[in-house]
Amino acid sequence: MTTTLARRVPAFGSRTAIVDPLGSWTYTTIDRHAAALAGTLRITATPGDRVALLCTPGHDAVVALLACWHAGTIAVPMLAQHPPAELAYTLDDSGASVVVASGVHWALAERVAAAARLRVVDVTAAGPSHRADPRLDQPAMMIYTSGTTGRPKGVVHTHASLAAQVDGMIEAWEWAADDRIVLVLPLNHVHGIVNVTLCPLAVGACCEAPGAFDPDAVWERFASGEITVFMAVPTIYARLVTAWDAADGPTQARWSQGARALRLMVSGSAALPVSTLERWRTITGHVLLERYGMTEVGMALSNSIERRIPGHVGEPFPGVAVRVVDDQGVDVADGTAGELLLRGPQLFVGYWRRPDDTASAFTDGWFRTGDVAVHDHDGFRLLGRSSVDIIKTGGEKVSALEIEEVLRTHPAIADCAVVGIDDDEWGQRVAAAVVAAPGVTVDSDALRAWGKTQLAAAKVPTLWIVVAALPRNALGKVVKPDVTRLF
Ligand code: MLC
Ligand code: AMP
Question: I want to staple 395 with a disulfide (CB 3.0 to 4.6 A). Which of 228, 269, 378, 415 is the partner?
């Protein structure tokens, strides 16, 4: 029988759970701080309420998450790097009743909370100690994700689905109490939260959270000999390779030797270019273990510790059932491409307050990933997405339609089309073809600066082109492959 993650924490007592810029935190301390914050949340929020988090990675983020769960509320992680407009959308859509903030994010939290008439609670606020035992089927966390329709949707996970994800990873990747991982991913996605933060906490291991991604600092942590596991998106591995290339000979040797001693290095969230895999193997001796996941399902497919096939993402995770189907929903044979469908205990329970979107995401109880895959004797291979309007850049999923809608609100833009352009470092880059408003000269730097006030940075195009008219078909619909060819 699985137990909720909050209940597993106290058992690890005086072991070190977290190391962050503020210090080193034992499991006992984390548990005590979480129970104290839960005491405050019990006063300001009701069980089932959404509690938005603006917390730094490490102690604060973990204490806030566990406190939400002890208080029976649903955690909604947000990213302080996002512009207030994006945060306001998340607060509004989730119907959050309170924001829990780290001290360094207090001013930002007050600003966005005031606009939404919400209270802000300091993550260090201590009420009467409160530890509850949420039911496994109770919603625990909501993560916002972009889709083909409209603005981002809240993906609701229960205590059971999170526990199933974590337990699957512990089994597949052999997590153990003596593991130590460095967290360099943002804490508004499953990759950073579930894979890198919750997995170590569920086994009594240690998560180091420096608070930001600094390639040289990561290499130095590898060189220390203390780190055993590392997980990141392909863009981060590409950045690490660039930093290694820029280092002097003795530094390169030291970094490589340290990295070789890790027991496991995993890549996911976007396709790992085989060229990056090969460079990484040359530099560190590691064949990166590539796996495939999604916000709605956690980890779904993975190469195994023993067998890693470049360009492939392996076989289903423990407990995950998989099908590959054609346009009619009929299962295809091995070697034939089709849409990947998934089922299992780690799947989300729905999109927040979007029953229609939830219903259309499933077919006969199977979740439609929108990813095109093929299975052969080396495992599964991802061939891309069925929709051109979903772009993956630096491991962030962004919606072309959402970006277009926002760009069209700018007075200089009469019309636009957004596409993903393949890129070695970013996987894809967000590119916009724009038709200028009459008599207006388009300044792409100014547009990018404005875009960053409206949208998360990853969504703001880095490539711009001005066209007289967008390529359209006979029905007047924009032809996205033709837009791509413009760049
Ligand atoms: C930042 N920028 C991006 C970007 N992130 N542009 C495109 N895509 C992104 N993802 C912008 C910045 O605003 C900046 O603009 C310029 O690009 C360069 O910024 P940088 O400072 O060099 O980049 P950095 O901030 O270091 O971010 C790069 C990164 C980050 C790769 C470290 O994007 C990242 O942490 N990605 C991981 C995302 C992730 O965790 N995905 C998991 C989703 S869960 P300017 O104008 O200032 O130069 C999932 C399920 C699964 O997918 O399977 O895991
Ligand atoms: P997100 O919605 O941000 O969780 O992103 C999930 C999507 O990332 C999946 O639907 C895939 O398109 C993509 N993805 C994740 N892992 C991989 C991988 N190893 N290879 C290719 N695509 C991946």
Answer: 269
